[in-house]
Specification:
Helix content is 32%, strand content 18%. The chain is of the alpha/beta class. The chain folds into two domains: 44 residues, no CATH class; 225 residues, 2-enoyl-CoA Hydratase, Chain A, domain 1.
């Protein structure tokens, strides 16, 4: 997906125009096909909450969105006051979603940022809930980011800067580093692999997957993740902000199984 891609929708909301082939696609058909154009195979952006439904096992998850998370959980995370000060916009599609649930029988925390959403304070609060919940419950953390969100904002020539500050991003990275200290798995999934370069301003995990329509296979149980920096550099890799490398490329339809295999691998190595 190029940096200037936007969802083109009919006024009645029933049709999408594919940016890959310009064909009109019935919205319900697009949703059933994981937002992959049935005509040309082009990957369209997936709304954040629908990603949770796609990746989590059916009916296995609870909502961790700030205005939906249990008050008792927010109090235990010392986040109740911060959430009460955060505005959750009343939009038809969430700019970010988070949940606790199961993927292939493995409990995990999953957070997803809408591909077309510029970073804002709501991202900070939701990511903080996800990270602290993972820490408190000793669960893996999976984060799905759009890798070209920054490019979209630049291309759109937004007059105002995003609300999410560098200090907040640094704080999220610091909190996320605590997962590494407790040896909890952290997996980052970047979407929109056809952008000019892979980049994200959000904290990344130890394992980096890229959603790619040109991939044919995911990660199998017999193929453990690459964790050594030297082996990463020798594998098929793309520089990410000059600091990390892509571990695997995964087609969208294989993403739940791939994540489940990774979580199962980590559970075996941790003896859980």
């Amino acid at each position: 997906m190029n940096s200037a891609t936007e969802i083109k929708e009919s006024p009645d909301g029933l049709w999408h125009k594919c940016d890959g082939c310009d064909e009109l696609v019935f919205r319900q058909a697009l949703e059933r096909n994981l937002y992959i154009c049935p005509s040309c195979g082009y990957y369209l952006p997936v709304p954040a909450e629908q990603r949770l439904n796609q990746i989590f096992s059916t009916n296995s998850w609870i909502d961790l969105f700030p205005d939906s998370a249990p008050q008792s959980l927010l109090e235990s995370l010392d986040l109740a006051d911060l959430v009460s000060q955060t505005v959750c916009p009343d939009l038809p599609e969430r700019v970010i979603a988070a949940g606790e649930g199961e993927i292939s029988g493995c409990s995990t925390i999953l957070t997803v940022i809408h591909p077309l959403a510029p970073p804002q304070r709501l991202h900070f609060v939701t990511l903080l809930i996800a990270i602290r919940t993972a820490l408190m419950k000793a669960l893996p953390l999976i984060a799905v980011y759009s890798n070209d969100a920054v490019s979209k904002m630049i291309a759109a020539d937004e007059p105002t800067a995003p609300e999410l500050s560098f200090a907040e991003i640094t704080y999220l990275s610091t909190e996320m580093a605590k997962l590494s200290e407790t040896r909890l798995p952290q997996i980052t999934v970047l979407t929109d692999a056809n952008a000019r370069s892979l980049s994200t301003r959000f904290p990344i995990g130890d394992i980096i997957l890229v959603e790619d329509s040109n991939s044919s296979t995911g990660v199998s149980e017999r193929q453990p993740p690459i964790t050594d920096a030297r082996r990463k550099a020798e594998s098929r890799s793309v520089s990410l902000n000059g600091e990390a490398f892509v571990d695997h490329y995964v087609p969208r339809e294989a993403l739940p199984e791939t994540l489940g295999n990774l979580l199962g691998f980590f559970a075996k190595t941790r003896g859980t």
